[in-house]
């Protein structure tokens, strides 16, 4: 049996990304969560707010980047072959595609669609620490009950109620940008005013010198 712990907004195939579990064992899964908040365009992270899109689209559509990618697969295979691949996890009622049906047309539309599925503005990462032991190790009886050898016991433990969040923020906020530019303008104006005052003073001294020289020559 396979088990997977993941975001409620994404479908995952446990056989590919899950934990393999065997009968007669007890599994303790300790879960911690990290959240990362990115910035949309024009910032470098150029993320997409899928939650806002979902709300604007009458609460339908993907809630996360991976499901956006799976939606691309379903839309394109439906367009060309009226079917959905077995590995596509986006909800649909189409028949399962035969891989022999795929042509170059799929790739032509798929990759441009994939580029539109930008990274999530809010990403939650689930970190799992899995501990497994034979269930019989917890039993004091000399001979474990038959159920202990046939059943799988799973305990999922959320270690911390708090979620550690990492924020990406602009290098300069709007207020900081204006302050930064304003500071430069203030310094420039200050220097300019000092230079103008020096220039006026120099002109005044030159005129005074010329006036005195002219008066002395007349005398």
Automatic annotation (TrEMBL):
Membrane-traversing stretches: 178-211
Compartments, record wording: Membrane
Chief place of localization: membrane
Any single GO CC term annotated in Swiss-Prot or TrEMBL for this entry: plasma membrane
Any one Gene Ontology molecular-function term assigned to this protein's record: ligand-gated sodium channel activity
Topology of the protein relative to the lipid bilayer: Multi-pass membrane protein
Gene3D superfamilies: YojJ-like
Keywords: Ion channel, Ion transport, Membrane, Sodium, Sodium channel, Sodium transport, Transmembrane, Transmembrane helix, Transport
Keyword field contains Membrane: yes
Family note: Belongs to the amiloride-sensitive sodium channel (TC 1.A.6) family.
Record-given protein name: Amiloride-sensitive sodium channel subunit alpha
Lineage summary: Eukaryota, Metazoa, Ecdysozoa, Arthropoda, Chelicerata
């Amino acid at each position: 049996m396979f088990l997977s712990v993941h975001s409620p907004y994404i479908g995952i195939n446990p056989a590919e990304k899950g934990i393999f579990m065997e009968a007669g064992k007890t599994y303790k899964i300790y879960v911690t969560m990290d959240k990362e908040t990115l910035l949309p365009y024009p910032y470098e992270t150029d993320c997409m707010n899928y939650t806002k899109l979902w709300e604007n689209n009458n609460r339908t559509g993907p809630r996360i980047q991976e499901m956006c990618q799976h939606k691309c697969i379903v839309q394109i295979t439906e367009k060309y072959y009226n079917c959905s691949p077995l590995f596509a996890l986006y909800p649909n009622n189409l028949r399962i595609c035969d891989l022999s049906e795929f042509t170059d047309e799929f790739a032509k539309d798929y990759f441009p669609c994939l580029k539109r599925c930008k990274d999530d503005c809010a990403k939650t990462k689930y970190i799992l620490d899995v501990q497994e032991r034979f269930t019989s190790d917890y039993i004091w009886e000399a001979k474990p009950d038959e159920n202990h050898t046939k059943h799988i016991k799973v305990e999922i433990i959320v270690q911390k109620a708090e979620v550690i969040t990492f924020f990406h923020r602009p290098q300069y906020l709007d207020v900081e940008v204006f302050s930064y530019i304003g500071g430069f303008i203030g310094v420039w104006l200050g220097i300019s005013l000092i230079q103008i005052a020096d220039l006026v003073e120099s002109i005044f001294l030159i005129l005074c010198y010329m006036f005195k020289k002219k008066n002395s020559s007349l005398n």
